[in-house]
């Protein structure tokens, strides 16, 4: 199967352009620069190639979706399939739905591109709750975590549209975050998943007129999440975490949930690409160990770093304020002591 380039996937314009002549020397210089740049990019991606895997992908006209045993994707809950999207939930209260792949994925390195849409009648902060993209051991399980079970085993990438924590001081919603579960870790709804998140970014994705995309890449035990929500066909970094260990043989899925607040949560497409990466002998030896339980290397250090980097907003304001007050207090005390000492010294001379 032929490799598919990212520019081709986004369907960039191929409008005719006016050709300009170029001197022969500039041709050689231009060719050399292109060759050098291509080598640099190839080295950076370890000669990465991408192949669309249709058996793990979901796209229009959504053939192979349904309850038949021959279907590649299975629906659950309130999910409905139309000609334009797979609607996980309608803009109604207390609904949840999901779509799950029937085929377990045994790819070592992969990349998922999610074309999605979240929209509804609710105004800002009066909508909810969000959707999730899954790569987990379990499938077709209803639950409170964006329509999936709690204590899941595998990877969840969440587009959280409603803040449950009352004091949201430095986080803007909607917010994209990722979590790796080992079957015993619970998602903390009251704190919007903060205790277990690997990282994330804000993403204003509701009620947009242009397309919105989520990019999830897992290669060489590194998890990368990016978003394209500005209509510019440009990826923006969201999180990049090394040392993520995900077993092979898990299932892809997407789910969503509404509560007292609601939204339409639509999946337009899920496209999975197999990544072929050339590895050195040392890398092959390091990755020979079979992974049976999902985990993240140095997770405690990672979260400690996030806590230190995450101090912002009101926390930074009060830190700066109290630091300034402390400096002023020290200066005032110093001036009083110096004044008292000067007065005492002056009196000794009279």
Automatic annotation (TrEMBL):
GO molecular-function annotation terms? D-mannose binding; metal ion binding
Record's GO cellular component terms: COPII-coated ER to Golgi transport vesicle; endoplasmic reticulum membrane; endoplasmic reticulum-Golgi intermediate compartment; Golgi membrane
Q: Which Pfam families match?
A: Lectin_leg-like
Transmembrane residue ranges: 314-338
Where does the record place it? Endomembrane system; Golgi apparatus membrane
Q: Which residues form the L-type lectin-like domain?
A: 50-275
Q: Name the PROSITE patterns for this protein.
A: L_LECTIN_LIKE (PS51328)
**Protein's membrane topology:** Single-pass type I membrane protein; Single-pass membrane protein
Highest taxon of the lineage: Eukaryota
Name a biological process GO annotation: endoplasmic reticulum to Golgi vesicle-mediated transport
List the SUPFAM superfamilies.
Answer: Concanavalin A-like lectins/glucanases
- Write the record's keywords in alphabetical order, separated by commas: Disulfide bond, Glycoprotein, Golgi apparatus, Lectin, Membrane, Metal-binding, Signal, Transmembrane, Transmembrane helix
Name of this chain's protein: L-type lectin-like domain-containing protein
